[in-house]
Amino acid sequence: MARWMDVLRRCGWLVLLVWGALVQANVLDKMFIPGVSVAPGTTASQQTADERILLFDSQARFQTDGTMLVDETIQVQSTGEQIKRGIFRTLPLVWHRQDGSTFRLAYQITQVLRDGEQESYSIEQTGEQIKLLIGRADRQLQPGVYRYRIQYQVSNHFSRFPDWDELYWNVTGNGWSYPINQVRFRLLLPEQAAFLSASGKDSRLQSIDVYTGPVGWKGDNARILTDGSIETLAPLHPGEGVTVAYTWLRSILASAPAPQEDSLLGNWLSPALKSGILWFPPFLIVAYYLFWWSKHITPLGLTKPAVMPLYSVPNGIYPGYVRYLCQRTYDNVAFSSDVLDLVARRAIALTKVIHKPRKSRSGMTQKREEQWLTRLPESGSMKLTPEDKQLLSTLFPGKTKKLDITESSMRSVPMQKARKAQEAHYEKMHPTLFLSIAGAVRAGLALSLLVPVLYGFFFNIWTAISTVIGMPFLLFSMMLCLQLLKYARFSALLKNSEKSKASLFLVVAGFLFTLPFGLGLFRLLTSSQLPTDYQGALLVSLLLCLGFFCIVPRHTQKGLNGLAIAKGMTLYLRAAEERRYETLYPPDERVTHFERMLPYALALGVGETWANTFAQYLKSHQMVSDVFSSTQWDGISQFNRVCSASSITVVSSGSGGGGGGSSSGSGSSSRGSSGGGSGGGGGGGW
């Protein structure tokens, strides 16, 4: 936890440093005025002088096939500074809906007029937009007022929901480099004349919303007129725009095909030229990991030993050690198996005392069970290592011979000390058994933060900041999925048919819930209109870090050798039902063999299989174990529980609770903003 807190603290400082640099560089104004390059010491209005858009009047008419005819009238005032030959209008080809869906729009320019006369124009396509260049390169315009009229058809631009359709439309676009004095917009549905109210509004419209301001803002610098049209209340500054959202019953466009979603993966992995800088961090991550691998992994010459079934315990191998190799951490099961190993080797005895119900002054007492550990005298046949003696002296300090580990007592200080001592003992082995990859993973995540940093510096800082806030939720869900997959891979219970199905269901359900949950929170905290190349660069960066985390070796050569031993023992213990022990050990050694291997079965996650086979063997041969009073798995798992419970330090703490509510709209308009929706773009003079 301390390591992760340190990572979060460093990331926080990085964000603050980047924010300070951006503010110091005075680029915030640039973020809010897309397409405008503001000279130092001047404002955008000063740069454009008196050139402006006097009126932006747009009318959109839906056809029964779902296409929309757009008629834009753009009246501009030219001083000859920028509007020399005419104007240009940009229209985006890709629309990123708030739910993450991506749609590719299709345009068809039908007519372009200037002051009522046909005007020359050309169309250029660059990346995710088309550029309509109006005017002739060999003809200069005199300063004055000009009225341009652009008529075009657009398709695949609206949203279809179960009961209604929606037009979430960026009327003006936020990429104009001039102020806009006034904006007007009107939507016409098929056969509208038959459904007009007395005020001239189409009665089939269910809702109308309007948003003004820079990208992401929910400004109210506009009003909805009684006839359902929109008009602004005050001039718009450069970089500001108007976005509308209309909804109506789905039956109105019943014959129109549903909009077709574009291939998100294709958009993610095909960056536009202007946003190519965002793909620098993924290439940097690849280069860093290749360098790190060549420096830290290749020289080691790691080789995985062959895994062969092991039918006995190798010398110097403890149950806690094999579990530590598999789990890469010393947990409660590892400690329980180490204590159980001392029981199997007759260094301590495990006894159970049952107190029957009896009468007392307060009434009948309940049945109570106690579990005790008793230290046995050392004998010549008992081979105890220094590590064994250290554990025994911690469990039984001084002249203590008995230790109560009853689950209800929860007061076993010696067990707590022994647990901490064992964990410290194994942690000292960590550098010789495992490779340190945490620094490389943190470095990769830090490099992935360059994607929002670069996006904030060159495009939109607020989107970048919200992305950084949302990233931990996405990373958390991905890490949770990894833990579930780790459980599915290493849990020996998967060999059991019923529990295999349950474990598989857990993994699939966890993946289907946690990753969409993280993506949902990520989208909630970030801008609704993230460009696909930005999403792609960010996703590829995170996947590179995740891929490195999954494939990088975790063990040193010594660790790999020990892991092969653990897997070899697991192969044998897991196949206990096959009675292979009958061909390996004579009858007089089988009970001792069962006892000796039981702690390792518990440590390796196959305790149930081994314990039940042990109990069945004793029952069928009418034998008993001198060490374990109960060899059934229930008895062994109970020992594991009480051993774990008595070794954990209990800390009292208060608790509190809270609740919160959430609401979600049914369409884009519920979380709409200026700059959202299909349409948009911008323009300027040339």
TrEMBL record:
Pfam (any one): DUF2207
Protein name, UniProt field: DUF2207 domain-containing protein
Classification lineage: Bacteria, Pseudomonadati, Pseudomonadota, Gammaproteobacteria, Enterobacterales
Domain Predicted membrane protein YciQ-like C-terminal: 310-614
Organism (species): Pectobacterium polaris
Record's signal peptide: none
Presence of the UniProt keyword Calcium in the record: no
Residues that span the membrane, as ranges: 276-294, 433-455, 461-482, 503-522, 534-552
Biased composition (Gly residues): 654-664, 673-686
Keywords assigned by UniProt, alphabetized: Membrane, Transmembrane, Transmembrane helix
Keyword presence, ATP-binding: no
Region (Disordered): 651-686
Superkingdom: Bacteria
Domain DUF2207: 53-248
